[in-house]
Write the C-alpha cells for this entry.
Amino acid sequence: MKIDRDKLIRCALDAQKNSYAPYSNFNVAAAVLCSSGKIYTGVNVENASYPVSVCAERNAIVHAAAEGERQIIAIAIVGGANAVNTDYCPPCGVCRQVMREFANPNKLLVIMAKSPTDYVEKTLEELLPMSFGPDHLK
Ligand code: THU
C-alpha cells in the first residue's frame, strides 16, 4: 500500500490540539494507517493519578482496534512541550510493544515528525528488535 506520509503527519498534527496533558504539558498525537486504508488518531490523555495516563500511540492503536482493524501499516507521531514540536518524539517501550501486536515488525513504518516535511522513520524491527509477539503463543 502506498503510504502518504504528508497526510498521515498532518492528521497527527491536527489531532495534537486534543492532547490532554495538564501535568506534563507535553502534548503528543499519533495517526495510524491501517490495512483498510483508514487512518485513526489518538492523543495522550493524562490523569491526576499520574501512572494512569495513556500515551497517544496506544490510544490511536486501541481506537483502530476498536473499529475492527487488525493490521497497522504506518504510524506518525508528533510531540513536544506545549505542542511545539522541536524534536522528533520516539514512542515509549510500552507503545512499541502495543504496535507489535498488530504489525509485521519488518514492515511497520514508525514516522517521527516535527512537521510534514521534517521527519525520521524507522521500522518497528529497528525500534524493538527480537520482539515477543502473537506468533510465540501459537
Ligand atoms: N507520551 C506519549 O504520549 N507517547 C510517548 O511515546 C512518550 C510519552 C506522553 C505520556 C505523557 O502524557 C507525556 O507524554 C510525558 O511523558
Observations:
- The domain at 5-128 is CATH 3.40.140.10 (Cytidine Deaminase; domain 2).
- Residues 5-15 form the longest helix (11 residues).
